[in-house]
Amino acid sequence: MQSRKEALDYGLAFPDTYVETPFRDTNWQLVRVKCSKKAFLWIYEKDGYVNLNVKADKEWRDYWRSAFKSVIPGWHQNKENWNTIILDGSVPDDAIKTMIKESYELVTDNPTKRIYEAVKKIPKGCVATYGQIAELAGNKGMARAVGNALHRNPDPDNIPCYRVVNSKGELSGAFAFGGAGQQEQLLKAEGIEVVNGKVDLKVYSMKF
Q1: H or E segment at 10?
Q2: Is 161 known to be catalytic?
């Protein structure tokens, strides 16, 4: 990958992205995510080469810089969070694509999305606690956020929030999951025994 078009085409291949030229200097093109309008790929020419600015996780930022001389601290951006890839032919295509993909994932990541993805992993016939989902989503301390997210479930058909119970195995109140008794009915339909509004976690808890 050495051309502006190659980089732009790859960036726009990710879901819900678009390109923008927001500055008077049209040399700069930004590939953004539609919902948040955050940019994850900056494309521009400098010193005779096409350059790409990508967001980098701190755990990988220095690795990429040490692996390739043409990956340097982000030019014109926060060097703690961004790297610049100089497309001089010395960085392999797969490495460039991986860095762009990582940048996209960093920009699109959010706790609620991670919570829903964690809930999707609960197998049929099992339950998980709010704390377990918080841990699976990457933050043990956001059990309350898990509860808030589940009660705003945007896709009940694919995000089985009814499989989440509290730390004692107790079901949610009548306001959740469509009304009184609905969570219990959904769990029983999957073969999970509910006794006095409670599930035996020793029997039905998801294995982590």
Answers
A1: helix 4-11
A2: yes
For residues 133 and 113, give the distance between their C-alpha atoms in angstroms, rounded to a whole number. 12
User: What angle (nearest 5°) sits at the alpha carbon of residue 80, between those of residues 141 and 45?
Assistant: 135
Residue 57: what pLDDT? 85
Catalytic residue among 115, 150, 161, 187: 161
Assessment of whether the complete model's pTM goes beyond 0.70: no
Query: Quick one: DSSP state of residue 77?
Result: S
The model's pLDDT over 171-201, given as tens digits with 9 standing for 90+, comes to 987 555 666 688 999 999 999 999 999 999 9
| Cα–Cα distance measured from residue 175 to residue 89, given in angstroms and rounded to the nearest whole number | 59
Q: Which residue has the tokens 């499989």?
A: 163
Give the single-character DSSP code of 74.
P
